[in-house]
Amino acid sequence: MTASSAKSTLLFLAFSLFSTFSFSQVISMQTTGFAYQYMVDNYNWSNWTDFEPTQMPIVIDIDHEQIVIYSAETQIYNVMKAEGSSYDQDGDEFLSFYCVNEDGIACRIRLAMLNSQGGRYQFYVDFDDMRWVYNVYIVE
Question: Are 96 and 114 in contact (CB under 8 A)?
Fold first, then answer.
């Protein structure tokens, strides 16, 4: 996929998920909570931790195909492929991106619109051995 078509796909998918927002090349979010889980062995994940309160910005920069989480240590993810959207059995919508972090490690970032929970949003970062989730809201 060329950079131009990846950008077009990313832009289309981001706006199809967040269709209620005004046109923009940057989507800004604010976190309100954070939880994580880790791989216990090759087949099992730990339970999710309880959510801890957080307040940090997350920025999806469509023009630069980059996602940045401004945590204590800034996390920078380059979007390599917009993988599309899907729905689960509850009607929740997930928008998935294959990404690489600044250390060159691949991960998947998923934006979730939880229709089954009043349309609230979550932001997932999934690595092979660990994953975390933020409760977020869109900053307009």
Answer: no
- Return the residue matching tokens 């730990």: 46
Task: Give the model confidence (pLDDT) of 41-71 as tens digits.
Answer: 988 999 999 999 999 999 999 889 999 999 9
pTM for this one?
0.81
Domain range list for the chain: 3-139
- Give the burial class of 95: count Cβ atoms within 10 A of its Cβ; 0-12 exposed, 13-18 middle, 19 or more buried: buried
Whose structure tokens read 């933020």?
Answer: 134
Tell me if 67 sits within 8 A of 95, measured CB to CB: no
> What's the one-letter identity of residue 33?
G
The DSSP call for residue 118 is: T
Q: Which pLDDT score is estimated for 7?
A: 52
Place of tokens 């469509």: 62
